[in-house]
Description:
Blueprint: E1 3-5, E2 57-64, E3 73-75, E4 78-85, E5 88-95, E6 101-108, E7 129-131, E8 134-138, E9 143-148, E10 154-159, E11 178-180, E12 183-190, E13 194-200, E14 207-213, E15 222-226, E16 229-235, E17 239-244, E18 250-255, E19 268-269, E20 274-278, E21 282-291, E22 294-303, E23 314-316, E24 319-324, E25 330-335, E26 341-344, E27 353-357, E28 361-366, E29 370-375, E30 383-388, E31 399-401, E32 404-408, E33 412-418
Amino acid sequence: xxxxxxxxxxxxxxxxxxxxxxxxxxxxxxxxxxxxxxxxxxxxxxxxxxxxxxxxxxxxxxxxxxxxxxxxxxxxxxxxxxxxxxxxxxxxxxxxxxxxxxxxxxxxxxxxxxxxxxxxxxxxxxxxxxxxxxxxxxxxxxxxxxxxxxxxxxxxxxxxxxxxxxxxxxxxxxxxxxxxxxxxxxxxxxxxxxxxxxxxxxxxxxxxxxxxxxxxxxxxxxxxxxxxxxxxxxxxxxxxxxxxxxxxxxxxxxxxxxxxxxxxxxxxxxxxxxxxxxxxxxxxxxxxxxxxxxxxxxxxxxxxxxxxxxxxxxxxxxxxxxxxxxxxxxxxxxxxxxxxxxxxxxxxxxxxxxxxxxxxxxxxxxxxxxxxxxxxxxxxxxxxxxxxxxxxxxxxxxxxxxxxxxxxxxxxxxxxxxx
Length: 419
């Protein structure tokens, strides 16, 4: 495996527009350091949310970075993107204000996708994690790398590629790394070779504990407190599991089989129920409880008419907002306590949408580059704004930085400002 810093690995084009209007710096309150934001819930802070929705979005800059589905992350005024220029995976650090390249690394990561997924890009799929001045990237072949976020120097690397087998409809590593009690936790493995959840020292990469079990799904773990116990909750290729976040001990499991092993949606903890969804399984709410030393998981509700595929929902005010794969893509709001539908759109809205939550709105970025700003209502679907923000496919989660919009398209990343 070759690692090098190069300004020529990618052809980078930066188109800068006038930046005088905002002088857009970035404070810690605007950081988006991991999958779905600061708490992995898809919620925007007040500092990130635009003060007013613009008439249109204008490009400030755009940089070619290569293909992939990993969402960009930001920290301390830097924007980090993990991408692919086959057969290499590339890590790029940009100045979030100007789009100027600060550093770039690449490493060999040859990957053959299963034939049934050949139309999709070869990843990377997992969104990076920034913490303590380090950037952690997790490639499609299971290569976990720690970089100095300021300089791009490689600090350490763990190669889990021996656990990856794509012969059984597996599209490569997808679970985004998470920080739990000072440790970097990754979920890796495959349908054929089984799975592991490993917690590592962020400074050295030394493994502190390892859970072994079924191969992973594509969902990313969540860190939640249930009955006073800090747990990592995630999907395997056929179940939902909870493990002790401090030592990796298995606590409970819920069968969640899927014939294609496509357990993709990030679980949502409502404070009362754990909500999971699948395109064929529908949407379920489970009660997780502890009696003595015994954990139980009981289905509290199920809605067969809402099945989410790749799109993870957000929770606000007791309502779940998401995109169901039914009716060719249907925006939906559900009662988080009962699973009852509160409203739906008519359908044929999107094959995929990344979903974010603001105090007043739900934001959907569809895979065709359409950004919808929908009123955060429990009674009706009301779209207030609709924009075209990219000319190619947009499967990655968007970011809002100081009211500006960061969008990753099929091969590049852009910053757009309102006008």
